[in-house]
Structure formats: structure tokens, C-alpha cells
Write a structure and sequence with these properties.
It is a single chain. 24% of the residues lie in helices and 20% in strands. It is an alpha+beta fold and 879 residues long. The C terminus is likely disordered. α6 packs antiparallel against α8, α13 packs antiparallel against α14 and α18 runs antiparallel to α19. 58% of the residues are buried. It holds the Pfam family Glyco_hydro81C. Its EC number is 3.2.1.39.
Length: 879
């Protein structure tokens, strides 16, 4: 069976055609002007008009008016870069500071301040459209035929002798920390132009170092800085004087499974088309009396796992409150340095109880019972001055009349968390140090949390399901029974530890360029009749106009075309055993790649120092932020550059003499842009794309979004990791190779929890599993669609392409069988009449290689239908 599977790979490699249509450009748009945006129509429970609210300017920061969160009309209300959205914050409620009747009593648990009358809490808003700004809504695959070549390649009279290259990690410990060293600290190549500006301005950022663009906190420096940020399990948002509280502080929210909103059921699967969670709920707001209409939000210490938000009374003032935000934090922590705390809520206080005595020396504890039935615990650790003494003013406000020095921490109690929070309060994380090793097929990586606050206190942090399943025994022993629901990552579990260590025992260190499976390893043998059959086709495919097909105005489509031809030359050389023909095609492929290495493509790359990265000049020249899928604004860089990195790895494998310092520097620049492992690299942020906390990448760059970061194609995410592994192997960078192999193993675990749904999946909502794939996964919702349409072959297929040797490692046979039976069996795949058909059957080779071989070999209906085989499906265990 593995031999047949390899034949499918070869045929798909040879028969593929390029997916390379350029995208339309708005020639009349002015420079750097954001378009109004396009919304992909997607059925929703409510229309935008029913669920939307509008952002109104506040004339009086001390008033808060009652609002019905579900009945306000839409307007556009954001600043640079503006993002169309389904809603913004509701207008403020009246009488924020108006006193209400408060009943104070003392009991065994402490001093209780009760509100005499209950109010109905605001239930939040549900974003009701798919935001597509920066997303191209046309197919990412071939939509027109490629002409047959007018002449065929002939092998050169003198052939190069290509020495064998070892592409597997030796079965011994490579280094003590594969994350320790930078790839390079050199400036990007001189032929990449320099710019000091960027179409998106750095809003409120005080750091001068390269800034991560695709991380969880970027809403704090985009748009009007008010879209939510997800820490998991909590989310936070700057209220900016708006919404249910009218606060100028930071609102904290946690959404339970019961608040989840499902879309209508798909007629074919019965599964809801999406699920989403309400936003704009202000359970607890941490603010200060000093904050008002002049408040300015700034960010600093922006890293791959963490960032700090500061709220200043005005642009010249020192911060009144600072919030160190770290993914997975057990508490949301605010640091006060003499400001007077305001504790606000849009859910309304039922009781506010101050505990008798101190839970720890210097720590005052409050219990906040809200009108939605939830309980929040608050701990105030004073580092100077007086303890925090809160007076309840009304249902939505408790305040301190005295300055406070120290930290205020807030956590939601699921019913069994009070003892744990009492134990962990006073300490908080400020960041994460990542380290790891690879030893043969075993990889380990560690999150060492940086700490502040009370010395000697152990941190409480929340772990996602893929962390929990990979913990080493010592870390697993620190897990507790305290659990909180996340939005799109299942149930998080509190861990009482200052570090976590995860282990992956199936690191695919032995994956190379050739067909591979987890059970059989690399498969090399092809029968002579099969070689002869494929050879004729391969010569035609290698004779296509490589230079024309790769000379496009898109880094994405150019990269896909280059990778297609790279995989063809690889198959001819390594599988068909015809190095002469491979060299003939390789000669032209190197010329095509040189156009980009020389930065002479239609839209050259620039290195811009505003954010710190290499990006397409397309938006600089056209003013359209969405051109080339938003590359200039750092959308999809790991997809785009991944294809180039893979191509370079193949060229270097087939011709080691090509590995010149200039070519190495160019490719490593692309690598550093998407996967720089070190803070010692002064030109690029760490880990722009891959999120080590979530276990997968985020594709969204500098675009403000209510649902925060997202990623559509999980398979192109794994492609970028595979490309890094192969480039590391060819270039001799063992650390890079090991990091990428470990990344693939982590992706396998996380994607099968969050993106790919076998029937045994217990992470995502049970009624959603029948969709089999996520579609688009956001931090706040999962939408079983794509940005370019909702056809079944699109939604499922975007998580298949490209098909490469690692594909059966991530997309397991059991999963592929269930997906095929659910959507494509009984002739349904045959009825797909586009390039997606080839992708579907290339994927089918994982479970039925013989049937897939029949499809591609011409023994079935496919004969002459070149359009059924898309270049991005190249991938076939080959591209």
C-alpha cells in the first residue's frame, strides 16, 4: 500500500499545475487609505442590525446611561487602520457615580456590602458577520488552464553529480536548548530596500525593538484600541469610557459554555455552521479615579508570550495602572503606584464582601458576587501605604478614596477555586522563557514563567488541553481540579507551578523530501513500468514556462508556483532517477528563484523598521491593505514565505553549489521574519507566526478584529514548519531542523484538538464535531467557512493543501476516513468540477492509495482534465 501511495505522490507531483492568478488591485485608491472592507455573506442567527451597537463619544465621563445591548444600529467608528465591524461598544449608562442604597453588615466571613435592588446585567453582543478586511475572497487555487509546452526539455550533455545529503537528525541529543541561539544577527540583504514607516502606524507603543504583529495583544495597538484580547480563559478590553460601565479602565470577562451561540445547522451534516461568544461583557473593570476622557493607552514589553498595557491620565503622565498580560494567566493583575482604584462592573454587584483579616501578609481579599450568579475573587497586595478599603457606591461601582500602592488581582471562582487562589495570590507572571531539546524522536519544551509580586508564592496558570495531554509527570502532578471554559480551546485547567514541561514522543525527525508515513517511514521503490509511465508526463510538466508562471504580483501565488516546480524536479531526480532531466528544469527554476532573491519581482520586499520585518511593497505602492492577502500588513507570512523556503531547500538539495552566502542570507531572512527564535536578533520579533502557547500559528497581522487573531489553513501552517525543517537540514542548521520537527509534533497534537475533528474529539462542542474541520478558527469563534466561499470542498480542502510528506502525520488515516465518508464518498468527490478535485483525491491517498492512483494515472474519468489537478495540491506527498 505504501508503494501505491508513493505512486500517487509522484503522479500528483508531475500532473499538477500552478495556482497563480493575480488579485485585482484598486488603482484609484489613495496611498494607505483603508477600504471600507468586504463582508462575506454567511448565515447568522441574527442580522447585524439586530445585534449591533454603535460607539458614541462621551460628553460626560462620569455618567453611565442604561442601554439595551441588542437594539442599537450600526455605524463605522474606528481609527487608523479602520476595520469594518458588526458592532462597537454600547453608549455609556447614566449615573456612574450616583449613590445607591447599600446595606453593610458584618459576619464570620467579613464585611458584606449588599445592594438593595437588583438590576439586569448586560449580556454582551455577538459579532454577526465575517470580517474580511485584508482577506482576499477569491480562490487560492488554479482557475484557468496552463498551456501545454511547445517544446520539451532535454537533459544537458554534461550532468552534475549530486552528492547525497543527510536529512535526518541523528539519534542523540543535539543541544541543551534548541531555542538559545539566533539564526543570524546580520542586517537583511542590501538589495532589500529600507523603509522607516509603515501603512499602519504604531499606536501607543513605547518599545523601540521589533514588535510582534500577529500576537494575542495586538488589538491594543490597532483600530481604536478597544477590541478584546484573549488570554485564555479570560479576555480583557479597554473600555475607553464606553460600554456597560463607561469605565476608562480594563474590562475583564470570562465566557462560560452556556453563553455560547451556535449558528444554524448545515443540512448535510447537521452540525452548526459556527459558534461564537458574546463580547462587550464587563464582569469586572479595574480602573482608577485619575483616569478620564484624556486617558491614553500604551503598550510595552511586547514579547512572544506577553505584553504590558499601561493606562495614563494623559499622554505626558506616568501610568496610573499597568497590566502585565501573559497567556494562560490565573489572575488578571493590575499594578497601582499611588492611583485610587475604581472597581466597576456592567453585570452589577449583588454583594461585595471584604474578608476578615489578611489572607497573606499585606493581602486584602474581596469576594464579588454579581447579578449573573458568578463569583469573582479579588486580592489586593499592598507594597506600601494603606490596605485597599473599598466603598460600594452603587450597583456598578466600588471605589477607594485613598491612593493604593501594590497589585490588585482578579479571578473567577468556578465554585472550587477559592482555596487555590488564596494560595497563589500576590504573585503573577510577567513573561515566559521558552527552552527545549530534541533527542531522536523525543522532544521536550519548557515554559519557565517570569514572576513578580510576593516572593515564595507559586504561580497559578491555566493550561489548554494540548498542554495537559503532553505534560511530563512532574508537571501533571501540579494540575488542580480548578477548570474554566475557554472560547475555542476547550476547558483550561489551573496548574500550580512556576514552570511547565511538555513532551512529544513522536517528533518526525526522519521525514525528508520523499514520500513518508508514520508506519513505513520513507518509501523509495518504484517499479520500472511505473517509472516509464510517469517519465513521459514528467517531461511535459517540467517543460512548462517556469519563468512566466512564477513571475506574478503575489508572493503567495509566486511561492506556490516555485514550490510546484521544485517538487517536480525533486521527483524526477530522486524518484524517477533522471538527474539530467531534473538539472535541465532546475537550471530554469534557479533563474526564476533568483528574481526573488535579487528582489526584482513585481512588488519587491522591503525591510521596514517601524514594526521590524520584511514585507511586500504592494500596499506602499497601491494603498490597498488587502493586496496579496495583506502581506504588507503581515498577514499569512508563514504561508507565503513557507513556499519559498521549501523551494530553496529543494534547490539546495539538488545542487549544493547553489548554497552561496547570498542565497543563504536571502532565505534565512525569510525564516527570521516568520520564525526567529531569539531576542538577540535585532531585526525581527520572536516567533511572528507560530504561537507556542496555542500550538499553532496565527495568520492575521495588523488588522483590528473583534474576534482577535485567526487562521484559516491549518495545512499551510504545517507546511511552513516542514519547510523550515527541510531548509534546516539542507543548510546544516541542526537547531532549526530540530525546532521545526518539534513544531510539527506540537502542531499534530494541537490541530487534532482544535482544527481537525475525529469523532473521539472531546475538546470542541460535541454538536460541532460533525463539521470535521474548523474552517476559520478565531480566538473567539470557529466559523465553518472560508474567506472565499462556503462550498464543502473549499472548507474541507483548505485544511488539506498542500499535500506533502508530513501530511499523514498530521491528518491521520482515521480522521481522513471519517471526513471522506462524511463529505466525499459515494461519488460526491467525483462531482467536484475544479482544481479542488485533485486536492480531494490526493488527500484520499492516505486511506485508499489504489483508488487515488487510479484517479491520477488515467485509469478513471480524469484523463485530459488538467484543471482537476491544482498546483497547491502539489503537495501530494509531494507538492
Amino acid at each position: 500500500m505504501d508503494g501505491i501511495r508513493m505512486l500517487v505522490f509522484v503522479l500528483l507531483t508531475i500532473l499538477q499545475v500552478s495556482a497563480s492568478l493575480p488579485q485585482p488591485v484598486d488603482e484609484e485608491g489613495s496611498r494607505f487609505v483603508q477600504p471600507t472592507g468586504r463582508f462575506l455573506s454567511s448565515p447568522r442567527l441574527n442580522t447585524p442590525e439586530e445585534n449591533a451597537v454603535v460607539l458614541f463619544p462621551r460628553s460626560d465621563p462620569d455618567t453611565l446611561a442604561s442601554v439595551d445591548c441588542a437594539k442599537t444600529n450600526i455605524t463605522s467608528s474606528v481609527s487608523s487602520p479602520p476595520t469594518p465591524r458588526a458592532w462597537s461598544a454600547p453608549p455609556p449608562r447614566a449615573n456612574l457615580t450616583a449613590a445607591a442604597k447599600v446595606i453593610t453588615s458584618s459576619g464570620p466571613s467579613g464585611v458584606v456590602q449588599s445592594l438593595a435592588s437588583a438590576k439586569t446585567p448586560c449580556s454582551g453582543l455577538v459579532p454577526s458577520v465575517l470580517e474580511t478586511l485584508g482577506r482576499v475572497t477569491s480562490w487560492p487555487i488554479l482557475t484557468s488552464s496552463i498551456p501545454r509546452p511547445t517544446s520539451l526539455l532535454s537533459p544537458p550533455s554534461i550532468s552534475l553529480s549530486v552528492p547525497p545529503v543527510s536529512l535526518t537528525i541523528p539519534g542523540k541529543m543535539l543541544y541543551q536548548n534548541i531555542f538559545a541561539d539566533p539564526i543570524s544577527t546580520d542586517a537583511p540583504p542590501a538589495n532589500i530596500g529600507r523603509k522607516q514607516d509603515h501603512p499602519v502606524r504604531r499606536l501607543g507603543i513605547t518599545a523601540s525593538s521589533p514588535i510582534p504583529t500577529n500576537k494575542f495583544y495586538s488589538n491594543f495597538f490597532l483600530g481604536n484600541q478597544t477590541s478584546p484580547t484573549w488570554l485564555h480563559p479570560y479576555s480583557v478590553a479597554w473600555t475607553r469610557g464606553q460600554g456597560a460601565t463607561g469605565s476608562w479602565g480594563l474590562a475583564i470577562s470570562h465566557i462560560g459554555a452556556g453563553q455560547r451561540v451556535f449558528g444554524e445547522a448545515d443540512p448535510s451534516s447537521g452540525a452548526p455552521r459556527y459558534f461564537v461568544h458574546p463580547v462587550g461583557i464587563h464582569s469586572v473593570c479595574l480602573s482608577a479615579t485619575e483616569l478620564g476622557s484624556g486617558t491614553v493607552l500604551t503598550t510595552e514589553s511586547l514579547t512572544d508570550f506577553s505584553g504590558q498595557v499601561s493606562l495614563r491620565p494623559n499622554a505626558q503622565a506616568s501610568p496610573a495602572v499597568q497590566f502585565p498580560l501573559v497567556q494562560g494567566s490565573g489572575f488578571v493583575t493590575a499594578v497601582y503606584n499611588g492611583a485610587r482604584p475604581l472597581i466597576q462592573t456592567g453585570i452589577f454587584f449583588r454583594t461585595v464582601t471584604r474578608a476578615n483579616g489578611e489572607v497573606k501578609p499585606g493581602v486584602t481579599k474581596y469576594k464579588l458576587q454579581l447579578e449573573d450568579g458568578t463569583t469573582w475573587l479579588m486580592y489586593a497586595y499592598r507594597t506600601g501605604g494603606q490596605p485597599l478599603d473599598l466603598q460600594v457606591v452603587n450597583n456598578g461601582l466600588a471605589q477607594s478614596r485613598e491612593p493604593f500602592y501594590g497589585t490588585i488581582q482578579v479571578a473567577k471562582d468556578p465554585g472550587n477555586g477559592e482555596q487555590l487562589y488564596d494560595q497563589a495570590c500576590g504573585a503573577y507572571s510577567t513573561g515566559v522563557e521558552l527552552s527545549g531539546t530534541v533527542d531522536g524522536n523525543k522532544g521536550m519544551y519548557t515554559f519557565a514563567f517570569k514572576k513578580a509580586g510576593i516572593s515564595g508564592a507559586t504561580l497559578v496558570m491555566f493550561a489548554l488541553p494540548h498542554h495537559q495531554s503532553s505534560f511530563v509527570d512532574a508537571t501533571r502532578g501540579k494540575m488542580t481540579d480548578v477548570k474554566l471554559q475557554t472560547t475555542t480551546k476547550g476547558v483550561a485547567t489551573a496548574v500550580l507551578a512556576d514552570s511547565w514541561t511538555m513532551v512529544e514522543s513522536q517528533v518526525p525527525t526522519d521525514i525528508g523530501f520523499l514520500p513518508w508515513s508514520p508506519t513505513a517511514g520513507t518509501v523509495r521503490a518504484i517499479s520500472d513500468p511505473t517509472k516509464a509511465f510517469i517519465h513521459n508526463i514528467s517531461r511535459q510538466e517540467a517543460s512548462q514556462d517556469i519563468l512566466k508562471q512564477t513571475n506574478l504580483d503575489s508572493m503567495y501565488f509566486s511561492g506556490k508556483a516555485l514550490a510546484k516546480f521544485a517538487s517536480i524536479m525533486l521527483a524526477i531526480n530522486d524518484l524517477l532517477g533522471d538527474p539530467g532531466l531534473a538539472q535541465a528544469g532546475l537550471r530554469t527554476l534557479k533563474v526564476a528563484f533568483a528574481r526573488f532573491a535579487d528582489n526584482a519581482q513585481q512588488f519587491p520586499l522591503v525591510y521596514e523598521s517601524a514594526w521590524g520585518g520584511v514585507a511586500s511593497s504592494a500596499t506602499y505602492e497601491t494603498g490597498d491593505p488587502g493586496v496579496d492577502f495583506g502581506n504588507t500588513l503581515y498577514n499569512d507570512h508563514h504561508f507565503h514565505f513557507g513556499y519559498f523556503i521549501y523551494t530553496a531547500a529543494v534547490i539546495g538539495h539538488l545542487d549544493p553549489s547553489w548554497m552561496t552566502p547570498a542565497n543563504r542570507a536571502y532565505v534565512n531572512t525569510l525564516v527570521r521574519d516568520i520564525a526567529n527564535p531569539s531576542s538577540r536578533d535585532p531585526y525581527f520579533p520572536m516567533w511572528r507566526s507560530f504561537d507556542w502557547f496555542h500550538g499553532h500559528s496565527w495568520a492575521k497581522g495588523l488588522f483590528d478584529s473583534l474576534d482577535s487573531k485567526d487562521q484559516e489553513s491549518s495545512s499551510e501552517d504545517t507546511m511552513h514548519a516542514y519547510a523550515l525543517k527541510m531548509w534546516g537540514a539542507v543548510s546544516g542548521d541542526r537547531n532549526m531542523e530540530a525546532r521545526a520537527a518539534l513544531t510539527l509534533a506540537v502542531q499534530r497534537r494541537s490541530l487534532n484538538a482544535y482544527y481537525l475533528y475525529h469523532s473521539s474529539n472531546t475538546v470542541q462542542p460535541r454538536n460541532f464535531i460533525a463539521n470535521k474541520v474548523a474552517g476559520i478558527l478565531f480566538e473567539n469563534k470557529i466559523d465553518h467557512t472560508t474567506y472565499f466561499g462556503g462550498n464543502t470542498e473549499y472548507v474541507q480542502g483548505i485544511h488539506m493543501l498542500p499535500l506533502l510528506p508530513y501530511t499523514p502525520f498530521v491528518r491521520t488515516p482515521a480522521f481522513v476516513r471519517e471526513e471522506w465518508d462524511a463529505f466525499f464518498s459515494a461519488g460526491r468527490a467525483q462531482r467536484v468540477a475544479s482544481g479542488w478535485k485533485g486536492i480531494l483525491f490526493g488527500n484520499y491517498a492516505t486511506i485508499d492509495p489504489r483508488a487515488a492512483y487510479e484517479f491520477f494515472s488515467g485509469r478513471s474519468e480524469w484523463v485530459g482534465r488538467v484543471g482537476w489537478v491544482d498546483g497547491s495540491g502539489r503537495a501530494g506527498r509531494g507538492i
